[in-house]
């Protein structure tokens, strides 16, 4: 399993981003720490701009977006390590090592992610007028620490998720997405689930959707396209805990866009069935100026909450409560 990861994941930009200002790539990590989930995102673009996003939940979501000058960015010769100033992300033989060092922001940490499930790769998915590929690892173990908001969060073999995305598209194009990760609360429960739905900007038409179900370290079912149905209920009656970068809160309206009060996902194919119900409890917003329209922003809502998953895969029953983090992109 580790050999598969080591061969599959690496920094793509040096190979794909030449003369491509619309190129984007990011490594996205979620630690499902009980009571204190954490999101770390390391990204770069075709013009060698780079940033680190750190968001943590302690009664409410807080975090920072730190941007780096191209002179502070380096990629190792083996394409396995991305360095941004004193921070870094390294692909290891069995996972990832992330170091965050932002002393002027009061944020430091080191987290070792060890894969316990095989990665899966999707290539050349349409995103508006562009294309995007991604690799995800639905289940990892996280060990380490993060100092943020004046105190330490310690990760003692916590459950985690990772995805790596790369492609050429422009923020603000005619697309939106919902992306979610669910892992069972009980560590010995073998099931985990990843959900993806790509839509047009107004969320009136689905262009791709999938439910990926993993059993221990192996994919157990991939339910795609018309096999998947979603239902959105209401709007969460709670404003975002924070908007990042902070100045964007002056531009993005305080109530819109938000997240649903409840999201139901159902999928069925050849006897395999899955039903997941996600109930967010709070969320943070990330806002980025549109690259298509001068008067718009692209907003990503990172929503944490609980999920309940039931179903049957290959004759084996599924029934568990899980920690979940969903991302809702509004173009």
UniProtKB/TrEMBL annotation:
It comes from the Bacteria. Gene3D superfamilies: AttH-like domain. SUPFAM superfamilies: AttH-like. This is Hydroxyneurosporene synthase (CrtC). It comes from Mycolicibacterium rufum.
């Amino acid at each position: 399993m580790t050999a598969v990861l080591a061969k599959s994941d690496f920094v793509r930009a040096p190979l794909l981003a030449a003369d491509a200002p619309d190129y984007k790539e990011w490594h996205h990590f979620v630690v499902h720490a009980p009571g204190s989930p954490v999101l770390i995102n390391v990204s770069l673009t075709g013009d060698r701009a780079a940033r680190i996003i750190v968001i943590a939940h302690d009664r409410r979501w807080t975090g920072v977006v730190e941007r780096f000058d191209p002179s502070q960015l380096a990629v190792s010769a083996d394409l396995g390590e991305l360095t941004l100033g004193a921070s870094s992300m390294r692909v290891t033989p069995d996972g990832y090592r992330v170091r965050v060092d932002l002393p002027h922001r009061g944020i430091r940490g080191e987290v070792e992610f060890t894969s316990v499930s095989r990665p899966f790769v999707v290539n050349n998915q349409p995103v508006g007028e562009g294309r995007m590929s991604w690799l995800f690892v639905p289940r990892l173990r996280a060990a380490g620490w993060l100092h943020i908001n004046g105190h330490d969060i310690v990760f003692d073999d916590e459950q985690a998720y990772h995805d790596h995305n790369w492609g050429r598209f422009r923020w603000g194009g005619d697309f939106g997405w919902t992306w979610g990760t669910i892992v069972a609360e009980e560590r010995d429960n073998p099931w985990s689930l990843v959900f993806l739905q790509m839509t047009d900007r107004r969320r009136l038409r689905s262009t791709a959707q999938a439910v990926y179900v993993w059993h221990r370290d192996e994919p157990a079912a991939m339910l795609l396209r018309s096999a998947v149905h979603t239902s959105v209920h209401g709007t969460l009656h709670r404003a975002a805990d924070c908007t990042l970068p902070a100045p964007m809160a002056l531009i993005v309206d305080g109530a819109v866009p938000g997240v649903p009060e409840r999201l139901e996902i159902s999928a069925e194919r050849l006897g395999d069935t899955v039903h997941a119900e996600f109930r967010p409890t709070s969320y943070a917003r990330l806002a980025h100026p549109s690259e298509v329209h001068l008067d718009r922003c692209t907003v990503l809502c990172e929503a944490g909450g609980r999920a309940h998953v039931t179903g049957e895969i290959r004759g084996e029953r599924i029934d568990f409560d899980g920690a979940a983090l969903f991302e809702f992109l509004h173009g």
